[in-house]
Amino acid sequence: MPSQDKAVDVHSLYDTILILDFGSQYSHLITRRIRESGVYCEMLPCTQKISDLHFNPKGIILSGSPYSVYDQDAPRVDPAVFKLGVPILGICYGLQEIAWNHNGSIVPCDCREYGHALLSILKNQDHLLMNKLFENLEGDIQVWMSHGDQLDKLPADFRVIGKTSTSPYAAIAHEEKQIFGIQFHPEVTHTPLGKEILRNFVIGICRAQANWTMESFIDKEIARIRQIVGPNGQVVGAVSGGVDSTVAAKLMKEAIGNRFHAILVDNGVMRLNECETVKKQLGDHLGINLRVVQVSDLFLNRLKGITDPEKKRKIIGNTFIEVFEAEAAKIDQETKEGNHGEIQYLLQGTLYPDVIESISFKGPSATIKTHHNVGGLLENMKLKLIEPLRELFKDEVRELGKVLGLDEELIWRHPFPGPGIAIRILGEVTPEQVAIARAADHIYIEEIKKAGLYRKIAQAYAALLPVKAVGVMGDKRTYEQVIALRAVETSDFMTADWYPFPYDVLKHISNRIINEIKGVNRVVYDISSKPPATIEW
Ligand SMILES: Nc1ncnc2c1ncn2[C@@H]1O[C@H](COP(=O)(O)OP(=O)(O)OP(=O)(O)O)[C@@H](O)[C@H]1O
Ligand SMILES: O=c1[nH]c(=O)c2[nH+]cn([C@@H]3O[C@H](COP(=O)(O)O)[C@@H](O)[C@H]3O)c2[nH]1
Ligand SMILES: NC(=O)CC[C@H](N)C(=O)O
Ligand SMILES: [Mg+2]
User: Fold this and answer.
1) Mean per-residue pLDDT over the chain, rounded
2) Looking at ligand 1, which residue's alpha carbon is closest to its atom 15?
3) Does the beta carbon of 371 sit less than 6 angstroms from any atom of ligand 2?
4) At the N or C end, where does the chain have fewer CB atoms within 10 A?
């Protein structure tokens, strides 16, 4: 892996709340909720050694976990966290881990709680600092629980600040040390006031500055990029017109102007008019120094006779790397004359979920999703990576795009796979098949937009099937191909449901495709969910 940029640390710019992850399925939601309050936070595995931390967190949150604290192989926090002197909040397992470290007692309980519960907030008149976690909250509040263990004895010097009908120690606090524990999950929306509680912790108790906004991120990130790249350095990056690479490219353009070189590869399997549209949007409208490399013939030649989708992906990925490297070398040559430095950096649109995915405490795997690193590009190129979005979630990237002046249409664009239409043509990819698939996809997306449904659908496309069916047109028998329409609802693309289109929309789309596209006499709608199907065919 090439080295990461580390010139200016994000932690020197924003107060940071550290979330230590014990493997709960909700851990990343804690991060989301806190960022929504305008406070920067980061998640690390619970095994993080405090002496190896290269920043001083303003506060620490211990997440939930599928383990029980008394399990042989239970994940353990570095006890040094309790000596850092910053406020700590334990959530569910986190509460139990705090108690475990303070000689409290945790046992499996007879009355496990899964789902809604009523938490009675207990205010303490003599220990006012303990009340700060539930500041502005009173009486009984709805919370969401998911636990089978509970405290049956308070650790020394802790007091109860909340209970439910079955958990006498559902919320506890240590006043002097500012350590808090809650048995419920404030990060899920089923705890309606959860966000207030997290905000009370990070702002009221940790006193973290709420300065994490995309406006402030832009200024700071631009300054950071300038410092990394230096006054003459140059950066290359592959852009596809997808939201991540476009936002990253726009940020680079703001930071170093034309010393950023964006490359769009026209591989012959992009959507109809896509390259022209991207060139207009990125080049003309956003002023990004963009070159479009027209290499459709090269790609289509290499795809001749190939029907296996994985082979198609490989061929496209490898050819892509070849083209990109050749183009980067050309740019290096062309700009040698001026006083620019050599190209040293490669821009990548890596997002925070990809980073989180690679830091699981169950054994950090350094694999960031492979399709995010354009094939094996990085190993060969010896360029250093620059990843301006690596701290951001997808919705933050969209927000950032908005502040940077990107069109709504671009910001909400459906994802489009790198191998594009080649994997949406089942069977051999020929120029004729590309033309049919493109035309069908174009009509489909156009009609979805007209019906006002584009934003409701996470991804939609038309696939061209390699089978022929009988039809009748103008009293004549036809024997032509089939178009399959796919549209899914999903937030993470890991699981997905097919979209329930209104019938009249489907009817209209089908009519148009059959009437307007020669070679197609049938349209079907894919009603398979993922799993067991995938989104692409
Ligand atoms: N035709 C292309 N020309 C240049 N770069 C490309 C092309 N297709 C893909 N890439 C590069 O590969 C990366 C990964 O592609 P991917 O489709 O996963 O993400 P994206 O295009 O940025 O966003 P989205 O997921 O919204 O499509 C892109 O960010 C871009 O750097
Ligand atoms: O860049 C890419 N290269 C690929 O080879 C590829 N295959 C699938 N996808 C996209 O990934 C998401 C999940 O798709 P699947 O359910 O088909 O795996 C969907 O968004 C797909 O479009 C790809 N993206
Ligand atoms: N959600 C959790 O953190 C659960 C913690 C522990 N496994 C329990 O059942 O109590
Ligand atoms: Mg894409």
Assistant:
1) 91
2) 418
3) yes
4) N
Residue 60 β-bridge partners: 18, 88
**Is any ligand 1 atom within 6 A of the Cβ of residue 205?**
no
Find the radius of gyration of the CA atoms of the chain: 27
Ligand 3 pocket mutation pick from 27, 105, 147 by most atoms within 8 angstroms of CB: 147
Instruction: Check residue 395 and give its pLDDT.
Output: 85
For residue 526 and ligand 2, the question of a CB distance below 6 A is answered with no
- ipTM summary value: 0.89
Q: Check the annotation: does 243 bind a ligand.
A: yes
pLDDT digits (tens, 9 = 90+) for 143-187: 999 999 999 999 999 999 999 998 999 999 999 999 999 999 999
Task: State in Å: Cα 13 to ligand 1 middle.
Answer: 30
CA torsion, points 301, 303, 305, 310, in degrees to nearest 10? 170
* CB 415 near ligand 1, within 6 Å: yes
List the structure tokens of 190.
């089923």
Neighbours of 235 (CB within 10 A): 23
Handedness of CA 74, 77, 82, 87 (dihedral sign): negative
DSSP 124-168: -SS-GGGGGGGTT--SEEEEEEEEEEEEEEPPTT-EEEEE-SS-T
Mean pLDDT on 268-288: 95
SS3 171: strand
- Using left for φ > 0, alpha for ψ between -120 and 50, and beta otherwise, residue 123 falls in beta
- Whole-angstrom Cα distance, residue 14 to residue 34? 13
User: What are the backbone dihedrals phi and psi of residue 207, each rounded to the nearest 5 degrees, phi first?
Assistant: 60, 35
Residues with CB under 6 A from ligand 3: 24, 64-68, 92-93, 146-149
Tell me the pTM: 0.81
Q: Quick check: helix, strand or coil at residue 59?
A: strand
Angstrom CA distances, 154 to 63, 84, 95, 171, stand at 20, 22, 11, 11
Ligand 1 nearest-atom number relative to CA 374: 12
| Angle, helices 309-334/296-303, rounded to nearest 10 degrees | 150
Active site members: 92, 185, 187
Mutate which of 239, 240, 386 to test ligand 1's pocket (most atoms within 8 Å of Cβ)?
240
